[in-house]
UniProtKB/TrEMBL annotation:
This is Acyl dehydratase. Residues 12-126 form the MaoC-like domain. PANTHER family: MAOC-LIKE DEHYDRATASE DOMAIN-CONTAINING PROTEIN. It comes from Rhizobium rhizoryzae. Transmembrane segments: none annotated. InterPro entries: HotDog_dom_sf, MaoC-like_dom, NodN-like. Pfam families: MaoC_dehydratas.
Length: 162
């Protein structure tokens, strides 16, 4: 069951890890579909036989951008829902790093630390999360960075600032 919080709860969560996602298996079908969608057909992603022979990884690997894009799904399984939210928007990322390749068949999950939350205008809360995408049973993460998002809400629901 997803935890539901209020806008008034958010400030107390700054600096805390507020979610760890479910594991997601990155299989060859997912990699191939991402390659088709992005037109990135590099053999290290899409050709298992050639990747086994010619790449330093010995098998296919996920695109870094595929791993990054999984943060959206990870968000849904990890982060509490804000009761007053009417819509959520991606705003961008700061300092994305791809630390380790995700080999085909591995599982990944996301960790989310709320770094900052501040109001912008009458109906938006800008949040930033330090995110880490872990690879199961590996020491080095696949992705690290800071993810900026916007929570939109009805202006009448904005808490009084103290």
């Amino acid at each position: 069951m997803t935890k539901i919080i209020s806008l008034t709860d958010v400030p107390a969560l700054i600096g805390q890890e507020i979610g760890v996602s479910d594991w997601i298996t990155v299989d060859q079908t997912m990699i191939n579909q991402f390659a088709d969608a992005t037109l990135d057909q590099q053999f290290i992603h899409t050709d298992p036989e050639r990747a086994a022979k010619e790449s330093p990884f010995g098998e296919t690997i996920a695109h870094g951008f595929l791993t990054l894009s999984l943060l959206s799904a990870m968000n849904y399984s990890a982060l509490p829902k804000i009761r007053e939210q009417t819509m959520g928007l991606n705003y961008g990322f700061d300092k994305i790093r791809f630390g380790s390749p995700v080999r085909v068949g591995r599982r990944v999950r996301g960790r989310f630390v709320l770094k900052e939350a501040r109001y912008r205008g009458a109906n938006m809360l800008m949040t930033s999360y330090d995110v880490t995408v872990e690879i199961e049973n590996e020491r080095k993460p696949a992705v690290t960075g800071t993810w900026l998002t916007i929570v939109q809400f009805d202006p009448k629901d904005r808490p009084e600032e103290t």
